Each structure stands twice: as C-alpha cells, then as structure tokens.
C-alpha cells in the first residue's frame, strides 16, 4: 500500500464518517470471514420444528423458515456477497486497469479502440450480462460475479486511463522516457503506483455496488442459488414472510445497507484525503 | 455539425451491430430446444420436427443472423416461438410500460436529486447538508427491490392508496395506468435521486471553490446568487455524464422492480421467454435494452456538446 | 481623507495568525502597491476589503470606507450576513488566474452585462459593453466570445472590463499579470496604469514582482508573514530599503551579474537541426476538421560541443516543443536531427537508443519532475539502465559523483521527493541529468520556478558543471536577463520560427526582429 | 358480477389443443372451450357438448349425441362436423397436440348426423371418456382453429375479450350459451408469479382469489384474516424424487431402498409446503378409490438404510446430483431432502434448472441422477410401463400388468390390477414417493362455487358466484 494512502488512512480517523465506515466494513468483513471457520450453528441442517424461533434465545437473531440460525446464515451470506463483490472487483481491475494504462500510454488507434470497447461494455448493464450468462449456463453466484465483473472492467479502465493520462503529462514521466524506459515499464513503475490510491477508492465503491448488484441479481433469480446463501438471497427468501415475520427480511436488509454504507463512507473518506486533481481527472463514480 | 452527427450515428450503429452479433451468437449456442418446450413432455418426434421447421430452426446460424438483422431494420422480428405473436408487437407492447417507467424515474430522480444536491451544497457543512447526505447514503445503500417491497406494504397493502402492482394499458384507462406506475417509479427513482443528489452536491461544492465564483461574488452577487447563476450550470456538466450512465442502471432497475410489482415490462418478457427457451424473443428484447442504453448515452453526448461551449476532448474522456 | 482604511486588521485560521495588526490606507486616486513573498497575506488583505474572506477566517480590527459617506465596519462582522453594497460597485477587483476567473459557460459580454445589471442598470446596453471592451483595447466582437476562445491576456482584459463596469472608486488587482507572458504582462500593466489615470481611480496593486509595482505605484506596502514590515513612497522603498526583508526583495529583483566565462572555443557541431517541424492537431469542436497548429516551423540551427545556446521567445512560441523533439520525446512532422553521429527525425524515425544516453534534460518544474512514490535513489539510478555495460559498483559511483557535484550528500537519497526543497530538487534533477555524462543537456526554464535567491546558486552550479565536463547546453528561458547571463549565443523564436540568432550581446544590444525588440521593451526593472 | 382470479403462470397462448402448458387450461378449460365430455370437481365424467353416449359391447365404438343449437363465440354453428374436424386435427400426422396419446387409439371418426357422431378405437380404453373431457380434447371450429392461440373461439359459457400480454386475460359471459347460465359477467385472470406480489395483491384487494396460491408459507396470514377463505384440496400431482434407474448407483435396488428408508415425508411437507400435502407411498393419488396406503413399505430407519448402502458397496455414501425445476416444492424440498440424505452419507449437489432445461436434460436426454417433480396427470401410473420414460424403469412384470389394466374395463378387476401395480412400484422403490401436492386455494370469503380440488387442470368458473 502506498504511503499516501496510508497517510490518508491514518489522518482520516479524524474524519468521523471515514472512521465509522472503516469500522463497519471491517467488522462485517471479519464477520463474513469468520463463517469460513465457525458459525454459531450449522447452516446446512433443516430443522422445520424449530422454524421462526424468536431472537435472543438459543439463536441470537432467531431462525428462518427452515429452522436455520439467522446469524449463521447472515455470516455465510455476507461471505458469499463479499466474495462475489471482491472477485467482481478483481475481474474489473485485472482486465480494466491494464486496458486503461495501455490506452493512456499508447494513445492513437489503440486508445480509440479501448474507448469504443468501454462504451460498448457500458451498454451492457450487469443485469443484461447476467441474463445472457444465465441463459447459457444457468443461474449461480459465479455467473453473478462474472456479470458484475464484466461491468467493472470499463469502470476501472476509465478510472485508470483518466488517472494515467494526468500522470503522463507530468515531467517525471518524460524523465523516465529520457532514461530509456518503455511504455509498459513507465506504466508499471511510475503510473500505476501513482494511481493506485485512486484505484483503491474506486474499488471500495465498486465493492459496495457489487454487493448491491449481487442482491439484485439474486432477487430476480439470476444470482446465488440455494442451498448456498447470500444476503440478497436471504432477502428474497424472507420476502413472502414479511408480513408474518418481518425480522426475517430486516436482518439481511440491514446488513446489506450497513455493508454498502460502510464501504461508501470509507471510500468517500479516502477520496477526500487524496489529491483532488487526481481524483477529478478520471473518477467515474456513480455513487458520487 | 452534420458530419459529426453522422459520424457519431455510425458509431452507434456499429456498437449495435456488434452487440447484436454478440447476443445472437452467444444465445445460439444455447442448449435447450424451444420446440420441445412448447410441445411439452409427451410430444412426438414428428410434431417436434414440424414445429422446428416452422420456426426456421433448421437453417444455418449465419443465415438466421442475417434474417434477424434484416428483421431488425424492417421491424419484422418474426413470430415468438412460445407466444405465437409477432415479436415486434410483444416488445412494443411492453415498451408502453418500460419506457415510461425508466424515463419517469429518470425525470423524478432528477427533479428530486438535483434540488436537494444544490440545497446541500449551499448549506455545506451545516446540519441540513449532513442530514441530507446521510439520507442519501442510506438511499444509495438500500436494495431497490427491498425498498419497493416496503412501499407496497405501506402504500398498497396497509393504506390502500395505490395498487400493489399490475398494469392497465394506457389506451384502456390512462389514469389507472398512471396510478399503477407511481409506486414503481418512486421505488426506482429515489435511490437514483440519492445518487444524483450526492453527485450534484460534490460537483457544486467543487465548482463553488472555483475562481469564477469568486469573480462573480466580487461583482456584488451574494453567495447563493453566485451559485445559482454561475455555479449550477457548470456543476451540471459532470452530473450530466453520470445521468447518462445512470440510465443503464435504471434499465437494470426496471427489470428488478417489474418483478416486485408484477408489471408486464420488457424484463418480464425476457424472463418468461427465457423460461420458455424462446430465444427469438430474448435476443430481440435484450437488443432493445442495449439499444436504449446506447442511444441515451449518445444523446447525453450530444447534450453535452450543446451545453458546453468548450467541449474540447470531453466527449472522449 | 482616505478612501479605504484597514486598522489593526488581524486574520486567523484556527490558531494560525496569517495577518497581524495590519494598518493600510488608500487615498482617493492613489496607486498603492502591496508586495511580499508568497503566503505573506497579500491576497487576504484584498479579500478583506472585498468582504470575501473564507468563512473559516476569524477577523478582528476595523475597516473604514468613505465612498458616498463614511462607514466604519467592525471587521469581526465581515461575512455573508453583513450588508456590504460596495463590492462590484465602489470596489472592483481583478484576479490572478485569467484561465479560471471567468465563467466558462457564459459569453464575455453577458458577464460584463451582469455587473451593469447589478450596479448600473441604466448602462446595461450593448453599446456600453462595447465601450467598456474598447476601453481595455478589445474589439467589440469579443462580446460574443466564450472565455475559452480568448487568450490569457484577452481574458485578463475582460476581467478588467468587468471590474470597471461598476465604475469603482477603488480597483484591486491581485497579481493580475503573473500568469501572463512578459509581453502580455507589460501590455496589461500599461493598460491598468492608463485607465487608473484616466478614471482617477484609486488602485491597490498586489504583486511579488517589484518591477511591476515600481512601474505602477507611488506607494508601497511590504508584507512579511502577515506583518507589515515597511511602507512608504515607491522610490524611497526601492532605492533605500530599510528592512532586511525588503532589501532582500529588492536585491533579488536586480539581474544576476554575468559570471566570467573561461570557455574553450569549439566549433565542431554536436547537434544539427534541419527543418524540424512540429504540428498539433487541435479541434475546437468535435465535428470540425482538426486544424493543425504549427508549434515549430522548420527550425534549423547548429549547436557546438561545449557551448551554451540560448533559446528565448514569448510564451507559446514553440521553445518547449522544439526541445522535446530534439530530446526524442515527441515525433517531428518534418525535418531531421543529426546528433553526435546519429540521425533521427521525421524520415529517419525515432531516436536511436545509443543517442539517448548522450542527451538529457532538466525540466522547469522541480516538483513535477520526480515521481512522488519513488525514492530519490531509484530515480537517480533510472537513467543508468541505458548503460547496462556498467557494473553495479560503477552505477553507484556515477550516482555518488553526480550527487556530490550538485552539492548534496548520498545519505539523503533514501528520502522521497517531498522531503526536499525546491532548490534541492532542482539540483537533484540536474544530478539525474548528468549521471550519464551526456554530451548535451537541454535546460527548459531550469530556474524560473525557483525562488530568486536560489536561482543564482543553480545557475552557478550549471556553469560549474559545464567547466568540469564540457557538455553543451541548450538553455531555454523567457527571462532575457538570465539568458544574457549564461549563454554564448542566443536564438529568438516567434510563432514557431527562429527569427533571429547571434552572439548574446549583439542580439540584445542591437535587436533586429520585431519580437526581440518587444521582448526587450517588456522588461520591467525597478531601476527603469 | 366480476371475478378477478390470480394465476401463477401466464399461458404462452390460449389454444389448449396445441400446447402442454397447464396454464392454458387454467384459463380456458370449461370456461371458454368445451369437449364432448367434461370432468366435474370429483373427477367424474359428465356430459358436455355430448349430452348422451353409448358404448359398444366390445368397448371399441362410442356413439355420441350432441347438444343442439350451440354456436361458437364467433357465431358459427356447432355440429358433428366440428367434432370430426377437431378429433382428426388432433390425431393428424402433423398435429401439434401435446397429448397425442389420447387420440392414438382412435381409428375412425364418423359423422352419423349433424348431432350424432361415432368414434372407433382400436382397443377398449378404461378412461377414454375421461380423456375426451380433458382440455386437449376440446372441440374447436375449422374457421377459427388456426387463430385460437391468440383469439380463442369456443363454445363455452364465457367468451374471450382481451389478453394483455404479460398481465391478464379477460373473459366475459357468453349471452348465447345453451345450458345453465353462469353467475359471473366477467372473469379476469391476472398472472403473478412472484409469491410475495401475489400476497400483496390479495391483501390490497386487487384480486378476489387464487385457485392455487403459490406460497403455502403465507396461508396463515390469510387464515387469520376473515376476509378470506383458505381451502385446502387435492390435486393429481404426485410429487416424487424421480430416480434414474439406469444410472449408477441407483440401478441397485438396495440403494433405492436405502433412500426410501431415509426420506422423512412429513418433514418435507412441513418444511417445503408448510404442512400442505398428503404423504404418499407409491405413485398414486390418495383420494383415488384404488389407492392403497404403502407409506410403511420402507419406514424411516437410518440404521437399516446405512446397512443397505453398505451391502450395495457404498458404506461411505456417494455423491450424486439432484436437479431441481423452479417450483417451490422442488427447490425447497430438494434442500430438505439433501439434508436428510446427508445423514447416511449421500452427498447431493443441488442444480437448479429452468423448466426448459429440465425437459431437455432430464426428460429427454435422461441426463440426471435424481430430480424432484410433480406428475400432475390423473391416473398416470402407466408411465412406469415405458422403459424409455425418463425413470428408465424396465420391469417386464409391471409392463404386462399395465397392458392388462389398459384393456380391462371391469371396475373390481381394474382396482386389483391398479393396486398390484402400486405395490410393485413401492417395493421396487422406483422413485422416492414424497407427497400428493395440495391445492391451496385462497379466495374472498363471499365467493362460492370455486373448486376445492383439481381433478383436471383448469379453473371451472361455471358455478362460481358472489354471495348477495
Ligand atoms: N482558506 C484558507 N484557509 C487556511 N489558510 C489560508 C486560507 N487562505 C489563505 N490561507 C493562508 O494565509 C496565508 C496568506 O495567504 P495569501 O493568499 O494572502 O498569500 P499571498 O501573499 O497572496 O500569497 P501568493 O503570492 O502566493 O498569492 C498563507 O499562509 C495561506 O496558507
Ligand atoms: N499537446 C499539445 N496540443 C496542442 N497544442 C500544443 C500542445 N503542446 C503545445 N501546443 C501548442 O504549441 C505551441 C508551442 O508550445 P510550446 O509549449 O512549445 O511553447 P513554449 O515556447 O515552450 O511556451 P512557454 O514559454 O509558455 O513554455 C503553443 O501554441 C501551444 O499552444
Ligand atoms: Mg495571493
Ligand atoms: Mg515551454
């Protein structure tokens, strides 16, 4: 992690919304990761006799329609949502960032081609990609992840290119060129480290969008499928019980909101601390 | 101007062509036999073959792609395999819902989001700003289907002010059609409004720091006069870009919201068609959605060119 | 009776006091200069008079105006809530940045009209706007232009017209010319001078350029870190400054004396530039055909080994573009370069790698020329990749030598760029440029971003290095005095063409080209 | 009077003679189209367009007398020629009728008089009259047969008004109907597939009822609400864990028996259907007079199950796939079943599929291990006699038994044969037999005449009326 980001990080704790966002995100991530090794109850047993148990007894948050422990389900669900969002961001970054760097570094026809490609992919909202993938391979969390990931590609390409373009105008890049470095070497040695914080901010925002998108896709049946669980799927499953057992829908809903808000607040805080010129250069940020 | 328009339109057309090819060839390799689905479990092989031929499924893919493209130009998309109605008609029929819904939400979110964003920017750092932006954070974080569900429970099931869903064609009863769209539009628009409010605020706060606002104040304008007369228009430029991108999200949102309100929109058409393996409908409807997004982005570009006299390289960035 | 008066004005941001007990007085029709180093509080003083201080500022003291009637304002009341009718009407202001001070989406005429509508509604006519434009030497049709369609000087004139539209009794100009090139700068200053005289307007002129202040003002206030150190009539302050701070400012404003050169004559051409041309395709509107801007138009010249060749010209004449082509950073559209046995250029293709190590460059901005995320050591090692034949120890030796040459020590190299001062960075930039021991070094305004006091040191260092290693310099500057100090021969560029060349003294003492004369005339010195 | 009825699935089109979708019959059966016979709510055959019939002694020739004065909704008259047209069309080579099997035995259709028609069949058929009463055998007019998909023209008491694609179908009382008048003036079928939306629509008063409410979990809300009647009836749907009898390891009887020993039917009914459903021990509807209770053929016994698995060589269990089509009974039932089978080490991978994919993979290509599906056709035990059916169950003895059953008309003998067949299936544990799907109707408490059960696919509205 770059020093500027670290600095932004520490100085940001004075910034209350960043501190809150960071803590909330950290707690939820820890909560999700914990489910890998431990959950209060198993999530794959069905115990119908114990369905809709009230909270605060044996089950802190009660049980769902299959008699599963809601807290355990939330943990496992948060993990799925997080995994989908994180991998989608990874897809977006791994493909998008090099494209953006290449566009900025190479210029000319290649840049135009990449921009066209970006516009093209932008025309396919994640849901449409998900529809196509699902039609081909059936619904699953992986499909949701790929669909969201594909949508993330132009987002990161755009941010990376915008940031890189402003770096490329700086004298130290010219100095590096005078030192005989090639375009890709400059991109890796000088451009990438200097736009990293920009990318990290964008990543937190895309993470929060990814969690929301996963929820939406699961809701219409294109995402996570039972017996796996995700926050979105829990919400969907809880919907028909909403009038009788509202808490079923409240828990996952609140978890999603907390997660998304936490990540957004954190991203905002980081952005506030960063060089304003840099973030203005490329930031395509749908959530503001 | 004309040359530029033609050039951009060609770009749009090319994008759509590539999109069409992508959708067609992806869906063409799909497993699943529409004929079998239509005829059900006990259908005989002869009836299957008969139906397949009737649907033109026995021709090579490239020819069918050509036929589809021609169909797209002439508006004759052929017959739906599962619903036995002209696809163009099916899609047009659904558009009378999906388009007002998406555009209604766009307009509503603009009408709500921009003024709130401006208000927050004007009161930057004060309680009003903090409160609004807190609300906006929540608005952004709420899954729209969940919000939609809450709206239904409150306004339809409990208060019975508005229908919980369903749609009546405009031609039949415009008031009922309008009433049916109110809750879905709100469900779609509010989260988007939250986003727009934030973008508008950020943008305006940014602009407010710029020198020309100080110049305007030096002329004798008050702070809010300067913001309104000089700030808002400048701040709108980045907001416009975001609004173009938001449209893609709105389209996606309509598909989700249609589900909550059992609205017969394009999304529902696609889902029914998918479960019926009716690729003819799926691909055309998908292309319509993609086309809408592309065209809106194009219009935003044009608008940008009209609003911003500088327009140096903006459009390409 | 003074027109405007600040008494014991104090401004604080949190616990940082940025203006302390400042007293300042402007008589009707007087021309007052306010000078001081960057950050000394000049702009805040002006903003206080305009009641435009940032909201976070805490203000104490008193402000008095006597425009229509006398008013006295308790400075603590300044702010949005204060009824302050003078802004734009009795006090006009021109700001520093011509590029950003105008609303980009509004025609200039409308921006001027806005002031009229606010303060002189009876004058809000096309004719009056055109008259105002004429007053600032702009043609009437500029009324319908957008700011981006104007040059910097033109924009600054529009800003001036706006400030004048309300017919103010006091005009505040906050560094109105420092973002402009010399010739334009001179034009604007002359314009302000003329208008102030014609309108019998009081003027508060803020600048760190003593030359400009000397040309305009009859009284000078000197600020240092928020405190008034000295004030009085211009001539007195400039000729016999009392305070050390003022003395330093005055000394720095005088040209650096030329060091004595003991340079061996060398006539073998190291660099031969033939018809080098650079065009930029620029389109104003997306749908317009890109119209090429010729930044460098068939430049032809020679540079001998070990010599210093100066390149001067007004801003935008193509100096940087030319040097970048020679350094191989940008492609040329025509022409070629012969350098040390290598040929490159339009037909020959890009610069061969072997030539790369013989040319290096020092950039103007000491802050932008180092990657903020790279340790200084790595930055200095970077050019050595062009010398893979050297061993690691030899690399180390080269870097150590370069560092010591520029007067710094190797133990600083673990730091990141932000931990160095501007002067140090420029030395490091020179060190980086010389680790390869190139035959040619291009210096693109190497000192203009530096504080006046450091300039001399850096120039001396450059001179030193040349004596030691015998490399040639292509020295670019718009500061004629600096060029005169360091170069042997000089070329003058205008609109992409080299219009005049020759021995420094010949060119400067007997200028032939129009542009050279203009450049020389535009110089403002405190002695002049 | 108007009735607004909710349906889960929208029909792809409205011609019951040209598609398998039950959703078509749900709208048009008995309301818009009529057959020679009709099935009443107890599953008995009643006269419809045929007022009367005689069967030859050998059971191969039927003669029907037709109702007179009947016209189609487009004004064209109905007579024996229309019947002949309809039946010939359905059994033609290029027919797209989904139940061609019904018509396969027909050898000849003969018009005797405008109001008399004779049908000859190859072999005696126990349920031929029943089959003629199904939606696939309704009578259509040659003038309108081709356009029935979008503009259905029948003889029923309701006629078609409008179909708002994706939303609703509107029917209206047929003033020219010959026969008992219906009470409703209009019937609107609204399609809502989302259970939550369905619930909201009911609670908000947008709908008067759902003949079969899609979300059993919400019924308690309606039961608590005096505005609604919740009526639990039966359907013909045997919900089974269909098993690929040719796939390893399910080709081993002991493995199938082990599974049968593990299945806890009540837990599945409770968990997936919230208690609505009747456990079954074989492929037969419990409300049918021939039904035998075979629930205890393989009582729940984990030890025994493990032993059987061990005997079959799977002491440590095995992995298999379970393909689940969209309905709740399958998706939720699958999760519960997977949890149950895990108790004896069988590890199921759940694969959710759309119907189209299910038809392709499971039904047509038999590419599956296990699946959960409801067989909704009445009296369909005969499917087990087809070795190519997707269960791939090949038992000569059973096939012979069904062959006999098909030609026997004597009721007592038929009952015995049917019961034998049920026992064989149960003992062979061909499939896992789970439960009979319940019909969970919810409608306005002031409505009467709605069918509690569904012996055939369809929503017969002819007797439905509002309380004064
Ligand atoms: N809004 C602000 N918040 C905090 N500090 C400020 C603000 N504006 C100015 N300052 C500080 O006040 C001091 C004086 O600033 P001012 O802009 O008056 O300097 P200046 O003399 O005009 O400098 P320059 O020549 O660079 O324009 C500086 O230290 C500056 O950092
Ligand atoms: N990247 C570019 N795109 C378009 N035009 C450019 C570009 N770079 C420079 N120009 C134009 O080329 C001309 C010469 O520019 P150049 O930077 O070489 O001038 P300069 O003499 O170095 O000026 P200065 O003294 O201000 O540094 C100018 O008119 C400038 O606007
Ligand atoms: Mg200043
Ligand atoms: Mg330059």
Task: Give a brief description.
Chain B: It comes from Maritalea myrionectae. The complex is a heterotetramer of chains A (288), B (317), C (528) and D (468). Chain A is 73% helix and 0% strand.
What does this structure look like?
The complex is a heterotetramer of chains A (288), B (317), C (528) and D (468). Chain A has helices at 3-11, 16-37, 70-106, 108-122, 126-137, 141-168, 171-178, 183-219, 231-239, 247-273, 276-282. In chain A, helix 3 (70-106) packs antiparallel against helix 8 (183-219) and helix 6 (141-168) crosses helix 11. Chain A has 288 residues and is mainly alpha-helical. Chain B has 317 residues and is mainly α. Chain B has 2 domains: 2-74, no CATH class; 87-316, Orthogonal Bundle (MetI-like fold). Helices cover 77% and strands 0% of the residues of chain B. In chain B, helix 1 runs antiparallel to helix 12 (279-307), helix 5 (87-122) packs antiparallel against helix 6 (127-141) and helix 10 (223-260) runs antiparallel to helix 12 (279-307). The longest helix of chain B has 38 residues, at 223-260. Chain C has a 6-stranded mixed beta sheet with strand order 6-7-8-3-9-10, with helices on both faces. In chain C, strands 16-17-18-13-19-20 form a 6-stranded mixed beta sheet, sandwiched between helices. A 4-stranded antiparallel beta sheet of chain C has the order 2-1-4-5, with helices on one face. Chain C starts with a strand and ends in a 6-residue tail after the last helix. Chain D has 13 helices and 19 strands. Chains A and B meet through helix 4, helix 5, helix 8, helix 9 and helix 10 of A and helix 1, helix 6, helix 7, helix 8 and helix 10 of B.
